[in-house]
Specification:
Helices cover 84% and strands 0% of the residues. By secondary structure, the chain is mostly helical. It has one domain (3-182). Helix 3 (58-66) packs across helix 5 and helix 4 (69-89) packs antiparallel against helix 5 (101-124). The chain is globular.
């Protein structure tokens, strides 16, 4: 596969994760760079690993996994979106919450399921996956870190509106994944 195609595929795989990280950054507690780097690294690692995993187990479970992966992604993203909408209804004086490891990992897995599908496809096409998994991991880590930090920089006055927008966007991303797989 051409290097430009590897980079574009990695960037394409990182888009959902980057948007979700913006929403997580809006509702995160303390704005520390190390938290953003941790979130970015977690998303990037999960994306790369799930792409490799999809490639490794392609033929055996592809049909079984494809039956429900979109439902998992939709449920997690819609749940995060609804949580964001509910938190936006709370008073602006309410303190922001620290992100839990479970929240970060659930969001990372939900937005990385497309990597599993890409890994499946590459294996079935007998194409190498290493550079694509690395490209997806790096693009995801960088995009997620930047988006998370951006979410933290939105002024308090606009945070509620941004949180509503992010919640709706998460639900929309989940719904589009579901629609894409069901149509």
């Amino acid at each position: 596969m051409a290097p430009w195609a590897v980079v574009l595929l990695g960037l394409g795989l990182a888009v959902d994760s980057t948007l979700v990280a913006l929403a997580l950054g809006l509702r995160a507690g303390a704005s520390r760079r190390r938290v953003a780097v941790f979130v970015g690294a977690a998303f990037g690692l999960v994306h790369g690993v799930l792409t490799l995993l999809g490639w490794a187990i392609a033929a055996n479970v592809a049909a079984w996994f494809e039956r429900f992966d979109h439902w998992i992604a939709f449920a997690v993203l819609a749940g995060l979106g609804l949580k964001s909408l509910l938190e936006a209804r709370q008073s602006e004086e309410a303190p922001a919450r620290e992100l839990s490891l479970l929240t970060v990992l659930a969001a990372a897995v939900a937005t990385s399921l497309d990597g599993v599908a890409v890994g499946f496809g590459l294996a079935l096409a007998q194409a190498p996956v290493g550079w694509i998994a690395l490209s997806a991991a790096v693009a995801t880590a960088v995009g997620v870190t930047a988006s998370f930090l951006l979410g933290r920089r939105i002024p308090e006055g606009g945070r509620r509106l941004a949180q509503v927008g992010a919640g709706l966007l998460l639900i929309l991303i989940g719904a589009s994944i579901l629609y894409e797989h069901l149509s």
